[in-house]
Structures are given as C-alpha cells and as structure tokens.
Amino acid sequence: MTATTDATVPTRDQVLRAPKVLLHDHLDGGLRPQTIIDLAAECGHPLPADDADALAAWFAESADSGSLVRYLETFDHTVAVMQSGPAIARVARECVEDLAADGVVYAEIRYAPEQHVEGGLTLDEVVAAVQQGFDEATAAAGGRIVVRQLLTAMRHQARSMEIAELAVAWRGRGVAGFDIAGAEAGYPPTRHLDAFEYLQRENSHFTIHAGEAFGLPSIWQAIQWCGADRLGHGVRIIDDITVADDGSVELGRLAAYVRDKRIPLEMCPASNIQTGAAASIAEHPIGLLTRLRFRVTVNTDNRLMSGTSMTAEMWALVEAFGYTLDDLRWFTINAMKSAFLPFDERLAIIDGVVKPGYAALAAEG
Fold first, then answer.
1. In this predicted model, what pLDDT tens digit does every residue of 278-326 receive, in sequence order?
2. Residues marked as binding for Zn(2+)?
C-alpha cells in the first residue's frame, strides 16, 4: 500500500496509541523475564541468568544467534515454568496486561496445551488456567481489549485430533480456533488431515504455520489439502511472484489464488528475520505483498525472544517503508476482518474502536 500525499506519517507515540490487532502471538514466547525468574524459583528450574535484565539479554542473544538449537532452547525455559495452574494463569494475565499497554484492542494468543501437562494438569485444566488469566486481565482493563485463545497442536506429535476436539469443546468459552506449529520440513500439515477434516465438519476456524521455514509446497498443502483459513507467516509465497527488471509483477497460480481468495497472511517481521525467512525489515516480503494488496497482517510471534511488541513491529515498518496512518489502519482492519470472531463482533471493533481511533490520530495533524 503506497503512501498517499495527504496521509500522515505517524510518530512513534502515535503508533503506540493507535488501536492494534494481533493474530499471531505465542503465549510461551511472551513472558516477562522477572516472571520467568519468579516461577523458576517456585518450581526449581535452573535458568541461564538470575537477573531480569541479564535473562532478557540471554533470550535476545539466543534468538539472534542464528542457531536453531539455541533458539529452541529458549522455549525449554519458558515452557518449563508453565506447568501449574497458577503459573499459567499468571503468564496469561500478564500477557493481556502487556498487550493492553501496547494499544492492542483485540488479540488471539496461541499455545500448545500438550506442552503444559508435565506437572500433572489435564489438557482441560491448562485451557481453564489460561482463560482464568485472560478473564482477570480483560476485566481489569475495563473492556479496552478482547482476547481469545488459539489451541496449537505440534506437527511432530500425534495429538492433533485430541487438541482439535479440545478446541471445539471450548468454543464459545474463550477459544476461537486451532493452530498447528513446529518444524515444517519433514512434518507436512497433511499428516494431521483427520484433525482438519474434523474441524471443518464442526464449522471451526483454524490457521496453519506454513511458508516460513519451508516453501510453496507447505503453503499449497495448508490451503488446498487442509483448508486453512489463514497462513501463519506465509512469507515464502514471495517465491511464486516474479518481479521483472522494469518493475512489472507476475503472480504464479498459487500466489494469485492466495490473493484472490483474500487468505490472510500472519506476518511477523522481526521473527522472520531471526529465523532467516527475511534478510531485513527493508527486504521483508511484506513490502511487496502490501503493495500488491494481499491480505497482510502484522504480528509479533514471540515478544520475548524477538524483544518486540506490536508498536515496535509497526514502527519498524513505518521507518522502512514510510507507511502512514492510513497504511497502519489498513493492516489493522485486515487483521480484524481475519479474526476468528463472529462477524458482528468483528464489525463492532472495526467501526467502534479501530476507525475512530485512527481518525482521532489523523485529526492531530
């Protein structure tokens, strides 16, 4: 989306105050460093640092190291301290508090319940603990933020049907949909086709991590075989787009289908750079995909590991591409249109929160 001459390039403070919508954020990737220290002390889990600043630096360095082993090790620590009901509820509550402080008005937070049962919790108890934290924080926020859960199954495990059934059982009680995550290479989404077919029969929403670490086949399977409503990341759709020397663009059949069908792309710029899916913000496919009017959304992925926030992600795009308030509003409405929330509730947030919020910022001049 190119900037228009009468549109305002926002200040960072305006980006902070702008209403934002977040569709791709992992609960176990957004803990406060001090919370990790507190919870680790309670459960006896050893950490690489015992000071909040030092621990935050360790997470950032590990995530930026270029080593997948070190990147994944960061989650070993966050998941380890989220094995009791009170611990999970605290993490969920603080997640919503942090998002509300960042100007997020709607968020879908994903996590894998199967990774939080080592302390004896059942899958149902894990979901209940997350919902307790969400309910406490949203009540304290006085209606400034709406939050829903996405239940994730791990691609390398065999519990996707169980998690899909759990998502359906909790539908209407805080869970908005289903996700599948984990290593793409060697673990195609079609391995879990029974779960996706079940969700479709139940008229349930789901997104699939695809097109981040693996290319077009992952995206094609997620859409055409599994029926994904949205694509987690989806950056490799750029591989099906050819830009000629004269600047003309040609879309391949898959890219054209994704654009024509308005399939949302849950793009996470900072995280994509860490995982090697993009070289820099300025070179991130989000620039071209936005210009071509794909259904682009902006997200955080793992706020702790990437040292990011929705404000930071959007501000980086403003700096790299000169995006205006109109552009940020477009990203935000894209995300709200794509949310796994009933139509009337989506419309109420767009018309009652997002549009007035951006109009007020634009009026500041």
1. 889 999 999 999 999 999 999 999 999 999 999 999 999 999 999 999 9
2. 24, 26, 209, 301
How far does CA 279 lie from the centroid of its chain? 20
Q: Please enumerate, by residue number, every residue annotated as part of a binding site for substrate.
A: 26, 28, 182
User: Would 1 be classed as within a structural domain?
Assistant: no
Active-site annotation holder among 212, 266, 283, 345: 212
Q: What is the CATH classification number for the domain harbouring 133?
A: 3.20.20.140
114 is catalytic: no
The pTM (predicted TM-score) of the whole model is 0.96
For residue 362 the two structure tokens come to 């634009």
Domain residue limits at 194: 12-31+82-363
> Is 235 part of any domain?
yes
User: Residue 336 domain-assigned?
Assistant: yes
